[in-house]
Amino acid sequence: MPLSKDQAREMAQSFRDISTQLGEYRFRNWGNLSLDQRQSIEDAEWKLLNYSNEFITTAAGLVLGDIQEDLKAISAATAQAKKVISTINAVKDVMTVSASAILFGGAIASGNYIAIASASKDLFNTASDILKK
């Protein structure tokens, strides 16, 4: 059974918590640990933190996977932006569309489904409004 985005986030939190607990243990017992023990615990902390980050990446990928049905809207928004940029002459309008496109790209990079949907709609509407002028 594939991992759900909620399960990936939950796992990420668990591994981060374990990493944090190891760090707290290491500092709480600093004087009782040898240099090698401290290093081993620190290495484990980093490995667990890296696993946590990998699970976050997995969760973000799963979120992006959930928006497959919205790819038509994303494609429409980018096509509309390309169309408006190729047909307008006013610098202000180009800057407006490019700012919306930058926000849209950032939303996709973030993997935040709500931001992606909102930015996609904003880009499409911005470009459409300019074309109607």
Key traits:
85% helix, 5 helices, 133 residues, mainly alpha, 2 domains
Q: Could you please describe the fold and organization of this structure?
A:
The protein has helices spanning 5-28, 35-66, 71-87, 91-110, 113-132. The chain has 133 residues and is mostly helical. The protein folds into 2 domains: 5-66; 69-132. The chain is elongated and about 75 Å long. The N and C termini lie far apart (51 Å).
Briefly, what is this?
The chain has 133 residues and is mainly alpha-helical. 85% of the residues lie in helices and 0% in strands.
| Distance, first to last CA | 51 Å
Tell me the helix content.
over 70%
Helix run count: 5
- Principal-axes geometry comes out as elongated
Note the beta-strand portion: under 5%
Major beta sheet, specifics?
A: none
Beta-strand segment tally:
0
Order of helices and strands: HHHHH
Work out the radius of gyration: 23 Å
Quickly give the structural class.
mainly alpha
Mean pLDDT equals 77
> How many domains would you count in the coordinates?
2
| Unreliable parts | none
What's the topology here?
Blueprint: H1 5-28, H2 35-66, H3 71-87, H4 91-110, H5 113-132
Helix pairs in contact: 1-2, 3-4, 3-5, 4-5
